[in-house]
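for the record, two folds in this file. i put them one after another cuz i was lazy. first one right below, seq on top, structure tokens after. the second one comes after a little note so u can tell where it starts
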Amino acid sequence: MARLKRAYSVDEVLNMNIPSYDFTGQWKAAIGNPARSGTWIVWGESGNGKSSFVMQLVKYLCGFGKVIYDSLEEGTSLSFQKSLQRHGMLEARRRLTILDREPIDQLRERLDRRKSAAIVVIDSLQYSGLNFRSYQRLKESYPSKLFIFISHADGDRPKGAFAERVEYDSDVKIMVSCFKASCKSRFREGAEWETITVWKEGAVKALLDDGQNEKPAEEPAV
């Protein structure tokens, strides 16, 4: 018979010192003070500002420690290079390590090293070769690390059944659309979505374009 895991009292749980990030400004308003471990997911359709948001997020997280960015989809392409330049990522160069399409098994070897990065960004979930079981094993193997998965989208949902299961499992869920990131987090009060503007001019243009595409109301018959 398997040995039962230890059970805790309410007092014991409430007195636990669970490490968290002390976010400020718009990041705290949208996400709260998140745990330093667990899973996040970011999704959005192409051309809506997802890549820009991810760069902004990674740059912010580099203020808290080392970050690994596994560029599985773009690799170290010209478009990825230009994105780094556009978002001033040289400022984060001492804490940011970029991997060029490193497979998950090799990423695991890297994470097994002493003092490896505490934050891991995998871009994208659809290029990772993971399924839900291997995703769970990855997360369980590194209980003190934060994994952030970037996902394709199908409308306003992550693309595919696997991505939807990861979204359900994630502590922080972020949908990027029309250059705005809508965040739902288990680390702040309220179940509503909170928004971070990725690119103000783009968000305004998207809103105007959406208004122009609306079908005008028909005049009432006389």
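(here's the note) second protein begins now
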Amino acid sequence: MKIPLLGTALFIVTAAAVAFYPARGSMVRPVAQPVAHDPIEHPQPEQRPVIDVVFVLDTTGSMTGMIETAKEKIWSIASSMASAQPTPLIRVGLVGYRDRGDAYVTRVVDLSSDIDTTYATLMQFTAAGGGDTPESVNQALYDAVHRMSWSADPNAYKVIFLVGDAPPHMDYQDDVKYPQTLALAARKGIVVNTIQCGTDPQTRQQWQQIASIGHGGYFDVDQAGGAVALATPYDAELAKLSAQLDATRMYYGTAEEMAPLRAKEEASFGIHANASAASQARRAAFNASAAGEANAVGAGDLVTDVAAGRVDLATVAPSTLPAPMQAMSADERKALVGKNQAARADLKAQIQALSKERDAFAAKQIAANGGAKDSLDDRIYGTVREQAAKKGLVYPDAPKY
């Protein structure tokens, strides 16, 4: 499918981004949330239902296949969650865990609507360590419950997915054991689901007990994750459009405000460099949706803030603008921002249209191969659909693949 050229606006913004940001490596680091602009006044955001989801993932040596599956499927899962009505605000957190004596016991990425940041950390995970069979599951669950900035909204759907293939160490005397942690999770309204990789009977017994105490569900998948592996003829074009959509950002602010925004740009460049075309295609669909706006843009974007009326472009200090804009006249700045608003709207429309074609193609391919029942995709989606319904969220019949 040929996509029409977006004109000079996108070229200028892409060039501006290259001029403004330093050279980027392929690896990225988790970053803090962007600092709000001051004295710009931001109105109260529209009230939307909240989904807070934390993946607690065993990253020891036997989990190579599942870790790679997680890297491939996180955007499909996010897109599936975004398909609810009313449109939710989705925040994702991550706890990677191993065991005492390994390179780390846990690595924690806090809940954030900037899913690129979470994904950037996930892309760095590799499977290593472990040694004996049990792992530090107790510590991982403790950190998931205690170290995440869970929503205080009692109507939020708050959920943990514990993913692993080995039981918890119950012999560490200074551990907080999972029944105590799960009791606190219940008081906070957090549901805990378990996904067992493989068939170890000890793990099955413990995972089923954790799910039962956590008021969640249990299911098992094969050691590699059991997800639907699907590439389509639309993926490469959607990946290209995704990069072009990222290039319409026009971040501005003080040096302190710009630091996390540069890091978000780093995350985006890392995704385009390292993620598969299929994963980038699902990211494009998510970012073009109403639920994906927070991840697609984030805070401190001139295009968004001007369009929303949060800032008067004429009053923005030139020193806080992207370098190529600082020497422009007021009219030139206004025209450039307007062109990028139009380019962004056009790109989102193209992504949405192409994503519908991709979804239709994927549905036919999956049906032709016997369906996706009992796949990781289907099981996670079915769990979310059932549990989120209690919070008033309504999902369509099938997940995104």
